[in-house]
Amino acid sequence: MPARPEYPDDHRRFSLSEDWIATVIGLLLLVGCLAGVIAPELIP
Amino acid sequence: MTARNGASTAAEERLDETTADRTPPAPRTGAWTLAGAVVVLALAGCAQWLVRSVPEWTSGTAVGSIAEAIEYPVYAIALGFLGNAALSLTGVRARMTAAFRTELFIKIGLVLLGASIDLGIIARAFGPAVLQAVLLIAAVFAFTWWFAGVLGLDDRLRALLASALSICGVSAAVAAAGAVQARKEQLAYTATLVIVFAVPSIFLLPWLASLMGLPPAVTGAWIGGNIDTTAAVTAAGTVAGEHPLQIASIVKVTQNALLGVVAVLLTLYFAFRAGTAGADGDAAGAQRSVLDRRSLAMLWDRFPKFVLGFLLASIAAAVLHATLPEAVLEPRLDAAKELQTWALTLAFVAIGIEFHAGSAREAGWRPVLVFAAATVVNLVVGLCLALLLFSGFSF
């Protein structure tokens, strides 16, 4: 069976899960704010 | 943007790597990445400081009202360009590229933005947004495919240009490149053209919308449907105002979500064509490649996962609105809004720093002409659809 041709985005490293990482970081920050852990005064 | 989900930073990383095929690669280390992150953070802090200070400095002068109207994306992008020039002159920009994560920052910002958008607005805008996205993607894709064919461009480059212009810029080009097995330099041309055209649009579209007196929802839908990259849409929406930003982000998120569908259709088309034309001499192999696990998983693979975070954030805010007193909830939502502004400022700084028009010169005039013509078509059809679908929208 012939080898699959190389796709332009085959060799991503960190970026493979960047979408999920952004989602998780965004939601964690939001939870921190909504729980009152990150107060507006703490943000420059 | 994200790798398989098609985010532009990764694609631009590919662009750098493509360029690196022709020039010696710059060494990247953790220290350089950290230094790059410090530069982005410092420039973002500077942009935040300017947006507060410039109106104070110019208060009561002839330019005072103009200074008050300038939103933070303008400062952030301008400072990003300055940083770009300084880092390029000193020869360290290429070593720091791992820190310039436009799409990571923009997606974090969009997830946080979800908390400030009423779930009802998302629900009401969803129908028109899907309709606009489907019609606009079909019209712009068809025109670009046809016109690029008239100019004799290679089918794979046609697919890349058409996907980038009609869906969501670099991320769509990356997804399409995977689907049609495009060459690396074709992806580099397309990615560069996307960025070159998107940056002026950040300022041009809000200005034109204001000139035409478009209502906020129509302005947002026009911006969201026209500008190719999600980051540039968010920047233009922010320049246009809070309500246009909300609609622009909903429309753009919808287009992003349709990326997987187009990628699957492109894979099917190219595999079918290869099979019937016998280009590879293995029709059965082509059909197998369509039906293999990778292709079937593509819909989910290409689905932008941050959309889930955006929706979850809006749902969480809606639940808390119903359960917590406003006096308790408002400061907490303000904190989320502050963090959202920071995330977007970092993204806009990164847009300026990442800007690199080098390979556009190597693309030749034909892809540039295709891009320019399709952008005009996108603007006109997008405006008609935005007026048709969002004129009656109220906040």
TrEMBL record, chain A:
Protein name: Uncharacterized protein
Transmembrane intervals: 20-43
PROSITE patterns the UniProt entry points to: PROKAR_LIPOPROTEIN
Superkingdom in the source lineage: Bacteria
Keywords assigned: Membrane, Transmembrane, Transmembrane helix
From TrEMBL, chain B:
Protein family according to the UniProt entry: Belongs to the UPF0324 family.
Keyword presence, Transmembrane: yes
Coiled coil: none
Keyword entries, A-Z: Cell membrane, Membrane, Transmembrane, Transmembrane helix
Chain residue ranges for the region called Disordered: 1-27
Gene Ontology cellular component list: plasma membrane
The keyword Cytoplasm is assigned to this record: no
Membrane topology annotation: Multi-pass membrane protein
Ranges of compositional bias, category Basic and acidic residues: 11-20
One protein family per Pfam: Cons_hypoth698
Subcellular location: Cell membrane
Protein name in UniProt: Inner membrane protein
InterPro entries for the chain: UPF0324_pro (IPR018383)
TM region(s), chain numbering: 31-51, 72-92, 104-122, 129-148, 160-180, 187-209, 253-272, 303-324, 339-357, 369-393
